[in-house]
Design a protein that fits this description.
Helix content is 55%, strand content 19%. With 177 residues, the protein is of the alpha+beta class. It has a domain at 112-171: Nucleotide Exchange Factor Grpe, Chain A, domain 2. A 3-stranded antiparallel beta sheet has the order 1-4-5. The protein has a 3-stranded mixed beta sheet with strand order 2-6-3, with no helix packed on it. Helix 1 (11-79) packs antiparallel against helix 2.
Length: 177
């Protein structure tokens, strides 16, 4: 090798090389920043879409809950139809068909009724209206359903209002006091 080939880089070449390294570093930082911003915007889009779906779901849920009270009233009224006149029983058949249509709407939207009698009291699914002394049920079991509960998936949209069993008080203890 000759002396010309081994020459030290000039100041200008060194400055250009340093500038190229700086530009490469800047480019990598800009690319990383771009990817972070892109990921953030994608996450924000997904979050907004999920929030929109939840808002729609809860709006529908609110309307469905409002249907539950008239459904309860229809069910209670139809319980007495058998003891009425023939004309009332004929009307009851029509009302029963309407009731079934309402219940099908609930099912179509994922709403299920749940039965509580004979099951342990669960504060997430039951609201205790009264405690009943009984030996027929274990203490803490639901004895009677005053208002039926409904749920969407695993989450109750209206808890059942129930009467809960408790052990009878010992009469001998009361007499001694």
């Amino acid at each position: 090798m000759t002396e010309e080939e081994i020459q030290e880089p000039t100041e200008e070449e060194a400055a250009n090389e340093e500038e190229a390294v700086d530009l490469e570093t800047e480019l990598k930082e800009a690319q990383a920043k771009y990817l972070r911003v892109l990921a953030d915007s994608e996450n924000a889009r997904k979050r907004m879409q999920k929030e929109r779906q939840e808002m729609t779901k809860y709006a529908i849920e609110g309307v469905l809950v409002e249907f539950l009270h008239p459904i309860d009233s229809l069910e209670k009224a139809l319980q007495f139809a058998e003891s009425m006149s023939d004309e009332v029983r004929n009307w009851a058949v029509g009302f029963e068909m309407l009731l079934n249509q309402f219940k099908q709407i609930l099912v179509n939207h994922g709403v299920e009724e749940y039965h509580s009698v004979g099951k342990p009291f669960d504060p997430h699914f039951h609201e205790a209206m009264e405690m009943v002394e009984t030996t027929e049920y274990e203490p803490g079991e639901v004895v009677e359903e005053c208002v039926r509960g409904y749920k969407m998936g695993d989450r109750p949209i209206r808890v059942a209002r129930v009467k809960v069993a408790k052990a009878p008080e010992d009469k001998n203890l009361e007499e001694k006091t």
